[in-house]
Please model this.
Amino acid sequence: MKEAGFPLGVLLLFGVAYITDYSIILLIKGGNLSSTNTYQELVRKTYGLVGYLILSTLQFLYPFIAMISYNIITGDTLTKVFQRIPGVGPDNVLTDRHFIILLTTIIFTLPISLYRDIAKLGKVSLISLILTIVILIIVMVRTVTFSPQVPKSENAWIFAKSNAVQAVGVMSFGDIFENYCRDDNLATFGRFCYGVTVILTFPLECFVTREVIANVFFHGNLSTVFHIVVTVVIIAVATGVSLVYDCLGIVLELNGVLSATPLVFIIPTACYLRLSKERWNHSDNLISCLILAVGVLVMTVGFVLTILHPQECSHGKEMFYCFPSNVSFHNSTLPP
Model:
């Protein structure tokens, strides 16, 4: 909403939700028309080996980049939690994001990711869901109690901003606790819940990346040794990237426009249009053409804007309104 403008941001939420739902329906219809049961089989039957490899690449990149972003969020979030522990100063190892990322990877995400059966992650997903509800409640409470401390922004209610396309790329992710002050105890508890949720979600993304590799290179079956090796390599590379690069904004934007957009907007509609036997002016065909055009536009424009106008990398930076003197200055200079 910050990137798109509040009114347009709300409309984008509903619009992308509708397109996502409609794309799933198109996948089902495409599967029925092609007598296939999976996304991969549908694309392979529709566009051959090249289409299958393109889809597999995108299906690998999307969760893999998400894993990188989860590590960045974990490092940013949990370091602020540990800073609130008495006796933990700025020079303590627990406030080092690199150490936190390595620690959570070795102790939590790697062991959980080694499970072969995704059904065993059911309890983990339940915990993550419960913590997400807790996070939502905390954000709602702070909306009421924290708002008076934040000065009014200029043009806060403008309908649309120039970065609306980039906003689509970061819609599914957002390190919202970066907006709260470090001495906020409720926000600190929220950061803890958020960090745990991200850690528990990481193995689900790893499962997808490993499954793609297994399908493309090992005909869907990994021996125990290869299962361990592939898992360790995937997590090691994702962790290494997150240790070297810590700008979350551009990571999320590129993942959204280059991976998510083709997977949700472009490929399902392209498959359906190729398989459909309806007249060109049938509603499904017209809507599919519209979604396909929007997807290509979002991917192209979003990529160009992300490269030309990347988001500022401000990870770990305390917001200006967390300092009373700055709030007084801004309140005195902003119009009522």
